[in-house]
Specification:
alpha+beta, Multidrug efflux transporter AcrB transmembrane fold, 3 domains, five-stranded antiparallel sheet, four-stranded antiparallel sheet, 11 strands, elongated
């Protein structure tokens, strides 16, 4: 790293000028990217629920779900027909519309509300996701019907609502994060120039982040949620890394001069920054073990942004420091809480952190046991973890897409918008009359499963006359085409099973298994999907892939830490502590969000479940971040131990040298991340609060209490490794 620093010092003017151009180009290139990213990627492509969802689109599409509510009377009276049929005809004639399914074209009674004052129109749209969003907005005028209140839900409006909400919330978070971070840095450095440098680095990191996301979107689907994670990482890490490098530069500057201070800062803090970026990137690689597009796009975006941030901290920042020199302390303020000089003998022996270390090491068993019990108590709510999926309920109340979703759930048959979907296939042939009769008999068997309210079938349009339903499915007349398209296409038929239970209710999941056990019609194969099946597949994926991710990240960190310290014990202890503090953080998000606490403070609506990807993302992100603080502390302790051979003294002085820096860095990172907790989307809010709690817990209780206690108990065994590994590490 020293050679790079010397090169940067020589080329400092060119480096700063180049980054100024890069920042402008990236800001221009990345502008508007948030409106082009997609909110999906939560499904396993090989899961049964995903296969059913993709094939069901040919029958009933949720691209645009229009809810019409009559201002007076019922929708099926003469005024209703006169008002709605022309509106639906206009929509059907739009070139972006592939198909319109309504009560008026099919006679399906479940498209009417229970009180017959509302009805649904299910519209399939052509084109890409962005084209569907544009079409749903353009169709608003055509869908207007006199005497009716219109609200729009479905995939396109939800897509539009999520992307616009994320874009607005990201801008607000950035506007809050920058001034708050600048204020904290000003108090730490007591110099406006020093405080401004990390913020400048953070601003450049955000512009590069958006450009990276746009570039990645050209090569594959990038989820809108990757933008949140990437922005949090880009802004948070840029400020954190700048703090470490800047602090070391300011310490070295009075002793060795401007240029050598840059070289020394990069040889020490710069190396730590490079290692930290590598650990965060390795942790994010664990997300590739999951098949879900959302997690993989977060991994790609997060890794790219992390490496770009490391590049900024090791090239742009030293160039700026080389240009500023002693002026880095210009524009001082007369107050603050500056970081102490680590060469101050008084601070090293009698400051707050060495006093904490001595108290802890005087009673290591008591302190260690107390901390572990506190962490386990925090983790206990995680035993109630109930993973689920994100749907329209994740949107804030008052948004049209959510209001439409709730209107369907409230006014129509139970869970009409989230049924169990059953696909019955006769391989290689269209169903005949006997097959349709067998399909109706199969539907009756499905309806007998406990908790099933109704199974939608062609017979609904011909109550009490199943033979007319059979004839309608086999006909070729234009009038019956819409009804046939709802139930039979090619060699496949679709049935919707309406349940009494919510999609993530345990009884709905048990019901799903019972439905899958019902024998399919003779000569046919049946697949059962739907929202509850999606929940079941998500839970199965967590059980199947999470242990692999944890093992991958843990082994990678063990190898890296052994390479740094030549010890087997320290890496094992570090991984165990990270797992303990992370589990405590998982318990905290269950206690807060799943149990519905702090709703007034955090402004959210509890859903009694937790989005399944939150713990996975938290683990991948926080494990790498917390390892950064672990290495910073252990590196200092090891330096003292090698110099003195005194384990207790090494721990005390190591904590004294790094305690304030680690907590300050964590405070800055938490400040940035908590600004994203102002998001109106529960998933982002949960992730931000969870990451903040985990980082704060790790940088305070774990590093200041548990690490000294365990290192005191282990003594010289902290540095133990088997002979064959020791020879490899120190030949």
């Amino acid at each position: 790293m020293a050679w790079l620093a010397r090169l940067i010092v020589r080329l400092r003017h060119g480096v700063v000028a180049a980054y100024a151009v890069i920042a402008v180009v990236c800001a221009t290139f990345g502008a508007g990217v948030l409106g082009e990213l997609k909110p999906g990627g939560f499904r396993d492509p090989s899961a049964e629920s995903t296969i059913v969802a993709e094939r069901s689109r040919h029958f009933v599409s949720g691209d645009l779900v229009v809810v019409y509510r009559a201002n007076s009377g019922t929708v099926d009276d003469i005024e209703g027909w006169a008002g709605l049929v022309p509106a639906l005809t206009r929509a059907e004639q739009d070139p972006s519309v592939e198909r319109v399914v309504s009560f008026f074209s099919t006679g399906a009674p479940w498209l009417l509300s229970r009180d017959r004052t509302s009805t649904l129109a299910l519209i399939t749209l052509r084109g890409t996701d962005l084209e569907k969003v544009a079409a749903s907005q353009r169709l608003l005028g055509a869908l207007h019907a006199d005497g009716f209140t219109v609200s729009r839900g479905g995939y396109a409006p939800v897509f539009d609502a999520i992307t616009s909400t994320v874009e607005h919330d990201l801008r607000r978070a950035e506007l809050w994060a920058m001034p708050l971070t600048l204020l904290l840095l000003l108090l730490l450095f007591r110099s406006l120039i020093s405080a401004a440098l990390p913020v400048i680095l953070g601003g450049v990191a955000v512009s590069i982040t958006l450009a990276i996301l746009r570039a990645l979107d050209y090569f594959g689907e990038v989820t809108i949620y990757a933008a949140n994670v990437a922005t949090i990482l880009g802004l948070g890490l840029a400020i954190d890394y700048a703090l470490f490098v800047l602090m070391r530069f300011r310490e070295e500057l009075p002793r060795v001069g401007q240029r050598r201070a840059v070289v020394r800062a990069m040889a020490t803090a710069g190396t730590a920054v490079a290692f930290s970026g590598a650990t965060v990137a390795v942790s994010l690689c664990g997300l590739f073990l999951f098949p879900h597009g959302m997690l993989r796009s977060v991994a790609v975006g997060g890794i790219a942004v992390t490496l770009a941030t490391v590049l900024l901290a090791t090239t742009l920042l030293p160039a700026l420091l080389a240009l500023l020199g002693h002026r880095v302390d210009a524009l001082k303020i007369p107050f603050g809480m500056p970081l102490p000089d680590e060469h101050d003998a008084t601070a090293l022996e009698h400051g707050l952190w060495p006093r904490i270390a001595r108290v802890v090491m005087a009673q290591p068993v008591l302190v260690g046991a107390a901390v572990v019990l506190v962490l386990l108590a925090c983790a206990a709510p995680f035993l109630r973890f109930s993973p689920s999926i994100a749907d329209a309920r994740a949107l804030p109340r008052g948004m049209e897409a959510r209001d439409a979703f709730e209107a369907v759930e409230r006014d129509f048959m139970p869970h009409l918008s989230t049924p169990h979907e059953v696909l019955v296939t006769w391989p290689g042939r269209r169903p005949g009359a006997d097959d349709v009769r067998a399909l109706l008999a199969y539907a009756r068997r499905l309806a007998s499963v406990p908790g099933v309210v109704k199974v939608t079938t062609p017979e609904d349009a011909f109550p009490g006359d199943p033979e007319r339903a059979v004839a309608a499915m086999l006909g070729s007349d234009e009038a019956g085409a819409a009804l046939r398209g709802l139930f039979v296409q090619g060699d496949t038929a679709r049935l919707a099973v309406l349940s009494r239970f919510d999609v993530d209710d345990e009884r709905a999941l048990e019901q799903l298994e019972l439905l899958r056990r019902v024998a399919a019609p003779p000569g046919a194969a049946a697949l059962v999907g739907g929202q509850s099946a999606w929940v079941a597949d998500v839970r199965d994926a967590l059980v199947r892939y999470t242990p692999r991710m944890v093992a991958f990240i843990a082994v990678a960190m063990l190898v890296v830490l052994f390479g740094l310290f030549g010890s087997v014990v320290l890496p094992l202890k570090a991984v165990a502590m990270n797992l303990l503090s992370l589990t405590a953080s998982f318990g905290a998000i269950v206690w807060i969000f799943q149990d519905g606490r702090l709703t007034g403070l955090l402004h959210y609506e509890p859903l009694t479940t937790t989005e399944s990807t939150v713990p996975v993302l938290m683990f991948a992100i926080v494990f790498g971040l917390s390892m950064d603080y672990e290495v910073l502390l252990l590196s200092r302790i090891r330096e003292e131990y090698l110099a003195t051979g005194d384990n207790a003294r090494a721990v005390s002085r190591g904590l004294a040298r790094t305690g304030r820096l680690i907590t300050s860095g964590a405070l800055l990172l938490v400040t940035v991340v908590l600004c994203f907790a102002t998001s109106r989307l529960v998933l982002i809010k949960t992730l931000a609060v969870g990451i903040s709690f985990a980082v704060l817990l790790d940088a305070t209780i774990v590093r200041s209490l548990l690490v000294p206690a365990t290192m005191r108990l282990l003594g010289r065994y902290n540095w133990w490794a088997p002979a064959f590994l020791r020879r490899w590490w120190d030949p």
